[in-house]
Amino acid sequence: MIIETYSYPRAAVIGNPSDGYFGKTIAFVFSNFVAKVQLYQTPQLEIKPQRADKTTYNNLDELVDNINFAGYYGGMRLIKGIVKVFYEYCKRNNIKLASKNFTITYNSNIPLRLGLAGSSAILTACLKALCLFYEVYIEPAIFANLVLSVETNELGISAGLQDRVAQAYEKPVFMNFDKKIMEKEGYGKYEVLHNVHFPNFYIAFRKNLSEGTETVHNNLKARFDIKEAKVLQAMKRWAQITEEFKAALEKRDKQKMHELINENFDLRRNLIPVSQGNIEMVELARSVGASAKFTGSGGAIIGTYADEIMYNKLHDIMNNNEIEVIKPNIINNN
């Protein structure tokens, strides 16, 4: 029997990047792109390399194209990391695993290194497959922690819980990462947003702006750790913005949501260096009346638009600047 599992990109609606700094965020996953894992029983344990893991090339052009597509590391380290973390979790919790091996393959069409949580989607799909294969249930909050631990503890990548929580729950989630809650529970307080009426969202991205999340977070974390006043104030405001957005969402106050999304980005721009290409995407979106902020660490933006007339204007202006625009298919699994 072949086990096939899926996970999806994450869109940070509001509050990021405060998720790694005891803040609050709202995020959802969307099915326009997908990471897929296949796992089946075999005599030996094998992880099959994919395009991102190539080591042989026809020429220099192909090598450089592959690096631009997937970065320097590929996905093998992710799969190895999550298998190790799963095994150690089961061992710590006295969960006896059946004595059997597997072969695992993965692929993903999620645009990489654009702040869409493509790496954690691969990890999430893989952990789902392992749980099904060995018949182990892991509650979503712990599941998200395990996925994060691969990146932070095993691979040394600075990251927060937001992506992994949205991918573990596969529902829109309001997340409170208050320090006291985190220290007591080991994870945040997560509220699934049932029956919410989101405004019209778009997501836009330019693949040549890709950069790893660690590029942004490493410097920010250092500033947070030394308690730089400007950083602490920003984190506090992002948490407030998230609360205000949630209230506006419940009231269906689209104008307020529009304003808060813009404030979220403007606060970030005043705190962290933002490349001109990323600024251009935001300004192009705002020029037609849409709101705009990063979906994650940069390279992609999310915002709201009023109607189809505005969306068509947005699509045209972005297309003229070689920027892709989509309407996210928001997942809300029961």
Automatic annotation (TrEMBL):
The keyword Transferase applies. SUPFAM superfamilies: GHMP Kinase, C-terminal domain, Ribosomal protein S5 domain 2-like. GO terms for molecular function: ATP binding; kinase activity. It holds the Pfam family GHMP_kinases_N. Residues 78-170 form the GHMP kinase N-terminal domain. InterPro entries: GHMP_kinase_C_sf, GHMP_kinase_N_dom, Glucuronokinase-like, Ribosomal_Su5_D2-typ_SF. It comes from the Bacteria. Keywords: ATP-binding, Kinase, Nucleotide-binding, Transferase. This is GHMP kinase. The lineage of its organism: Bacteria, Pseudomonadati, Bacteroidota, Bacteroidia, Marinilabiliales.
